[in-house]
Amino acid sequence: MEWSSLWSRILNKLRPRLPYGLRFDRSWAFGFVLGSSVFLSSASLAYYYRTQWRTKRALTIPKRPIELRRNEVLDGVTALIGNTPLIRINSLCELTGCEILGKAEYLNPGGSPKDRVALRIIEQAEEDGLIHPHTNSTIFEGTVGSTGISIATVAKAKGYNAYIIMPDDVAPEKAMILERLGATVEKVRPVSIVSSQHFVNLARSKALAFGKTELVGPNPFDIETEGEEAFENAREDLVVTTDMAAEDQDLALSDNPAKQPRGLFADQFENLANFDAHYNGTGPEILRQTNGEIDAFVAGAGTGGTLAGVGALLKQVNPEVKLVLADPQGSGLYNRIKNGVMYSSTESEGSRRRYQVDTVVEGIGINRITANMQKSLDLIDDAFKVTDLEAVVMSRHLVKNDGLFLGSSSAVNLLAACRLANKYHAGDGKKTIVTILCDSGSRHYSKFWSDEHLLANGIIKAGQEIPPLESIL
Length: 473
Ligand code: PMP
Description:
alpha/beta, 12 strands, binds 4'-deoxy-4'-aminopyridoxal-5'-phosphate, elongated, Rossmann fold
């Protein structure tokens, strides 16, 4: 059929539908096409100029790392916890071709993500009616440092004492901070977790010894219920005691539980308030900050709370997000994930330099499955092992190229993030990998950031330069 006859057939079809005797002819069609073109081109022009104007304006507004709002005064130091910025690690993005983003948890007031955990543990215990502020109550914890500092910070801010038991071979600056924060600090020889003298077990028994009566359960003071029944719903993971030996016996034996001094074992490894802090805090923040555009989350595990909490939240929203373990040398987790067996080669007879996890890295790496870690086991997709030297190389690279002075666990996380980036193929598109910047290098002057310490422990060799990051990726 010819075009002209097709055109007249269309016009004939439309003609009867026009009101008031109007005729639909060629000039109508021209008018319609012309009008639409003028409309479309002016709309695109307007859109173009508006985008240009916005870009120009954005350039003239100075960038601020954190939005400060008018009339916004935070309620004490605990209100500073969380809402940490997410930063692009520029040098690593250039090196790997992926977006590598770090959640700056070291900017929390207590200097690490453990602030979130300490706050959640203490608030949970308060909500359950187990502890009450300003009653001379004490929070007990066994920790390699960061959690202790966070517990001491939050405890003081909320009206409690802190009693921290830690291994005596961790960087001494952590104990110094704890002491300055007014915590009671007990340093003990590092021993195996099965020993009653392990710092975690000691913290538990100290909490028990605080009072003569062990009270367990989310509502142990339900005095309406008598005898065994009162403990029916007891949570055995909790240790809360009342100081029956308190000097003020009237207070200790008072019927008013809100006035009794209590001893609480925080128990970061088994207490799932740890998981909750990340599931309800760190995870949703990462999701918002990336607009949900995240391909992988990488983290080391000390208690496993961060990995499990953030991982569970991200996977719930998008099951395609990869959860990746960053494991330091000496930790058995890498083998547990890859081969199903908790094992580290440093466990073999005669090769161990240090009790617990044999590494200069502090805060991550474990040789047992904790309740918090357990929650991540079915979610982890991949794992990378990072040696002490590799962590040192990464930390020195970050200072030189990004002005980032970070601790050892952050270096392990970022190295694993780069390894993951290299595992993606060029055709996979630009992937976004998020990890945690846990604490500052200033917590590690005397070990991880001390060349003498690294030399003495054979991590670096005398007269040898620390290799560039590119050579180990
Ligand atoms: N980095 C540092 C410095 C830490 O102290 C910890 C906690 N021990 C972690 C990372 C690991 O966090 P998580 O306990 O949530 O596994």
